Amino acid sequence: MVDGDVPEQMQAAAFDEFGGPEVITLRILPVPEVADDEVLIKVWNAGVGVWDAYEREGVLVPEGAAFPIVPGSDGAGTVAAIGGQVTNVAVGDLVYVAATTRPKGGFYAEYAVAKAEYAAKLPQGVSAQHAGAMPTDALTALAGLDALGLPTGAWLLIFGASGGQGHLAVQLAKRQGLKVIAVASGPDGVALVTRIGADVSLDGHGDHTQVIARIREAAPDGVAGILAMAGGETLDRLTETLSDGGVVAYAHGVRPEPRERPGAPVRAYDGVANPGQLQRLNELIEAGPFEVHVAETFPLGKVVEAHRRLKTSFPGKLLLTIR
Prior knowledge:
By secondary structure, the protein is an alpha/beta fold. The chain has helices spanning 50-57, 135-148, 164-175, 186-195, 208-218, 233-238, 275-285, 303-309, and strands at residues 9-14, 25-30, 38-48, 74-82, 94-98, 111-115, 119-121, 155-159, 179-184, 200-203, 223-228, 242-251, 266-269, 294-299, 317-321. 24% of the residues lie in helices and 28% in strands. The strands form three sheets. Strands 3, 4, 5, 6, 7, 14 and 15 form a seven-stranded mixed beta sheet that branches. Helix 2 packs across helix 3 (164-175). Residues 19-320 form the Enoyl reductase (ER) domain. Pfam families: ADH_N, ADH_zinc_N.
């Protein structure tokens, strides 16, 4: 089924060679065709993540992608067309998508195609204006919590808690009944994690001795797990606060990787985009207010500036607006 208003061509941001932000340019491309197991999305907004920069640099290129490559693995918008086998969404639905494979291009465009299994109806509690910034980070945060598998009431330390994945992990962890110590970046980061419900909010740029003292004061028996969104010396120091048998989990791609400590296993994880995880994510989101914090919004024509902004520090996520 196809919305009758779908054009043959669209505006998109794409690149014909790998390199820095300047290789991305605006051009007119054909609207991708929809296979039986796919959906066509009229894109409202798209997340801008470090993985998009890796794609632009030629490090993480989706299988089957060919120049010109339209980047963007995160997006939200309305369903403009569905394939004959699609039953989970309908034309006109407002959805978000985390497309781990997208040989027909990503969400830096007016229209994008994805496998229907990567799409989910937007749950109540998420702003449609910010939804495109959420999918990959939210699913990765959920996978990190699954990797830790902490029981209700346990203390969890989230390192990098004010970042794109981190601030979503804070909210998902609270919905799972965990007590959260959020180590954020700077005063703005501390303010963000405090607002979204962290039990203890700390500035990771502060004195390490005082930070550790605050953690031990809150969790005298140690934290049961650490969810690491970044690595380095500060994280290594914070592992001292783990309880016996405590676990460190980190997303693949975190550098430097967390160090093993005696009796403290380290587990790596990846985000999982499938109907089961999308349903779980929606159920957790709908349990209460849920904020997708966008630090800065860019129109599609400012995509180069958005990629340059990726190299700086900011709380939450960056967003491209398409509609």
